[in-house]
């Protein structure tokens, strides 16, 4: 299994990045609006995962192709979309070698993908290749601004890792690098806030997510470093918070960067 394949977390992935139903509808509405989608529009999502973003587009009847290196993630998407879905195609493939002809799609979308892909320049080149002239690339991501009590957990985790000499960071292209590259390649970028919501998690639930190593940024850490770091974090949190049921909160924002005038030029 590739190091970045989400096979290992397919069944619990959605619980690690929940989007409330209303926000999900707003995200779908925004995607359809900014792309001016019609029933003829051909969508491609690279790194489609469990279809957190893609499934609602399929449900609205749009022609949608999803690509992922994790068959198990895509199987979760299929579970959400029972019955015949002639408008949906799922393909197991790598973002850096898309198995499609040039100029096949009107809209390409990635959400939380390119920071995972070491050869993200190649992935971008592939996306550009398969977009039709005048096609739109949507670069989507969620931004979380944690309230103070939750932020302290993140800071503590970084401190624990730094104390063990571990540096964390994306294994692929970070937001600034990807947007700079798109601009450099002539794209005109527009940033749209598609949805905002408040999210809450208890200390116990959060510690459980750490312990089960669900977030991909944990996978690159050596096993022994990871388990010692989690033990330290749990010890710290037991001292810091009054109980496991203590609620931590923050705001999530779903951002879409719309790249135009980039495809097939
Ligand atoms: C963080 S998940 C995002 C899934 C979905 N876009 C979402 O926002 O819920 C990243 C997905 O990209 C897939 N992935 C990672 N590297 C990939 C690559 N090189 N090519 C295609 N998919 C990849 C993973 O298997 C996983 O399903």
Helix/strand layout:
Layout: H1 13-16, H2 21-35, E1 42-46, H3 54-59, E2 63-68, H4 71-80, E3 88-92, E4 105-111, H5 120-130, E5 131-146, H6 148-163, H7 175-184, E6 188-202, H8 203-211, H9 223-240, E7 247-260
Parallel strand pairs: 1-2, 1-4, 2-3, 4-5
Antiparallel strand pairs: 5-7, 6-7
Helix pairs in contact: 6-9, 8-9
The structure holds S-adenosylmethionine.
S-adenosylmethionine (SAM) binds at residues 4-6, 17, 46-49, 52-53, 67-70, 73, 94-95, 111-113, 116-117.
Summarize the structure.
By secondary structure, this protein is α/β, with parallel strands linked by helices. Helix content is 37%, strand content 26%.
Descriptive notes:
- The chain has 265 residues and is α/β, with parallel strands linked by helices.
- The protein is 37% helix and 26% strand.
- A seven-stranded mixed β-sheet has the order 3-2-1-4-5-7-6.
- α6 runs antiparallel to α9 and α8 packs antiparallel against α9.
- It has a domain at 6-145 and 169-198 and 251-260: Vaccinia Virus protein VP39 (Rossmann fold).
- The chain is globular, with a radius of gyration of 19 Å.
- The chain has helices at 13-16, 21-35, 54-59, 71-80, 120-130, 148-163, 175-184, 203-211, 223-240, and strands spanning 42-46, 63-68, 88-92, 105-111, 131-146, 188-202, 247-260.
- It contains nine helices and seven strands, in the order ααβαβαββαβααβααβ.
- The structure holds S-adenosylmethionine (SAM).
- S-adenosylmethionine binds at residues 4-6, 17, 46-49, 52-53, 67-70, 73, 94-95, 111-113, 116-117.
């Amino acid at each position: 299994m590739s190091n970045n394949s989400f096979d290992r977390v397919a069944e619990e992935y959605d619980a690690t990045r929940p989007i409330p139903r209303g926000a999900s509808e707003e995200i779908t509405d925004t995607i359809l609006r900014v792309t001016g989608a019609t029933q003829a529009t051909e969508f491609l999502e690279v790194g489609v995962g469990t279809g957190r973003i893609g499934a609602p587009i399929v449900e609205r009847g749009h022609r949608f192709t999803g690509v992922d290196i994790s068959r198990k993630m895509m199987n979760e998407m299929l579970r959400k979309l029972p019955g015949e879905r002639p408008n949906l195609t799922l393909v197991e493939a790598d973002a850096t070698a898309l198995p499609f002809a040039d100029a096949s799609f009107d809209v390409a979308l990635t959400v939380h993908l390119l920071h995972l892909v070491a050869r993200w320049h190649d992935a971008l080149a592939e996306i550009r290749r398969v977009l039709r002239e005048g096609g739109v690339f949507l670069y989507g991501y969620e931004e979380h601004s944690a309230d103070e009590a939750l932020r302290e957990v993140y800071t503590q985790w970084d401190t624990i890792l730094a104390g063990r000499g571990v540096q964390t960071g994306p294994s692929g292209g970070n937001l600034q690098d990807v947007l700079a590259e798109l601009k450099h390649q002539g794209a005109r970028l527009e940033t749209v806030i598609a949805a905002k919501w408040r999210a809450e998690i208890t200390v116990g639930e959060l510690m459980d997510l750490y312990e089960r190593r669900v977030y991909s940024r944990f996978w690159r850490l050596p096993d022994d470093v990871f388990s010692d770091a989690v033990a330290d974090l749990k010890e710290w949190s037991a001292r810091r918070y009054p109980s496991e049921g203590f609620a931590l909160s923050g705001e999530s924002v779903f951002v879409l960067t719309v790249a135009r005038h980039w495809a097939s030029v």
